[in-house]
Amino acid sequence: METLLAEERQEKRLTPCADSFFFMSPYRSFSTSGCFARLDCPAIDGANSHGHLQTSLREAFENAKKHGIEKPVVVGAIPFDPRQPSALFIPESWQPFSRAQRQDDARQTAVAKPLNIAARKAIPEQDKFMEMVAHAAAATAQPDIDKVVLSRLIDIETQMPIDLDGLLNRLISQNPTSYNFHVPLPDGSSLVGASPELLLRKSGKNFSSLPLAGSARRDRENIPRDCEIGTQLLHSKKDRHEHGLVTQAMRDVLQPHSQTLTLSDTPELITTPTLWHLATPIYGQVKDPQDNALSLACLLHPTPALSGFPHDVARKLIAELEPFDRELFGGIVGWCDAEGNGEWVVTIRCARVAANQVRLFAGAGIVPASSPESEWRETGVKLSTMLHVFGLN
């Protein structure tokens, strides 16, 4: 009997409920139960402590405490366009777990289960995407815009509904160092992903960020060649230019809100299972004690790594060129507690899953030196992170 109960507890720990928010990071890993209150107001004014989102959040936290939730947190996702409704909620409870133990559990239970595909479609197809890149590259050679991020999708229909628990185990097993997440959405679908990019982490007065821009496909079967690829990326003028646009913009946004702010003039290399990335750690302390993790994340979102620079011009070009609405793709996922601590990551290397429908997303930064064919290949490598999770190529 004790063995059966132990197995039941283990099974519950390994398989979060479909309506549970799930977040894994080096800082804090936890899952949630239930939904006390939803916040769907847009995050366009989320950086303003007196704006609608922050006012609604404070009221929701106070109401949660009155109903016996001692340490309320808000969790969920904010779309790429913060003028659209948010997908945030305050759970009835949350439970921390060991990231290392969860990784071990996932490795033991992850089984590759290729999907039986009924239909698969690229949006847009390769020729159209390359036309988009050529148009954007020419536009960024003009004085009014320096960079624009273009993305593409893959829509997949399977013969049977997706096994979400098995999917999460494979995602964690294949991407153990990423920010792995599951967000239950109001329409019953799920947003799942393995983001490599920290937008904003806040603990007390301290905050940090790790923006990524500039990437190259790894060659893990040839270690010397793999290292050479990383070195080439670190010295690439095109990628260093793209990365510099992102970090300078973030510096300019954060500086007025910071008591201290530190970031290097030279990026460093980080890796995922499929890519090398240029990254620049950012560290600071908030100037205004009313600033919380969510307000700082909204201040930064979307960064030029997901939209372009300047943002307003890039957003218009994205709307003109991309044949779809990104919705939650390219947005942010994370949490913030009532004390202002929290963590938000960029919604990339991700998928939206609804029964037997899957939509994947990937984007690439376009600058004057961008090659349409190279950007198609780069987005293909980024898509492969989630394709491999689904047992696909």
From TrEMBL:
<protein>
    <recommendedName>
        <fullName>isochorismate synthase</fullName>
        <ecNumber>5.4.4.2</ecNumber>
    </recommendedName>
</protein>
<dbReference type="InterPro" id="IPR015890">
    <property type="entry name" value="Chorismate_C"/>
</dbReference>
<dbReference type="InterPro" id="IPR005801">
    <property type="entry name" value="ADC_synthase"/>
</dbReference>
<dbReference type="InterPro" id="IPR004561">
    <property type="entry name" value="IsoChor_synthase"/>
</dbReference>
<feature type="domain" description="Chorismate-utilising enzyme C-terminal">
    <location>
        <begin position="126"/>
        <end position="382"/>
    </location>
</feature>
<keyword id="KW-0413">Isomerase</keyword>
<dbReference type="Pfam" id="PF00425">
    <property type="entry name" value="Chorismate_bind"/>
</dbReference>
<comment type="similarity">
    <text>Belongs to the isochorismate synthase family.</text>
</comment>
<dbReference type="GO" id="GO:0008909">
    <property type="term" value="F:isochorismate synthase activity"/>
</dbReference>
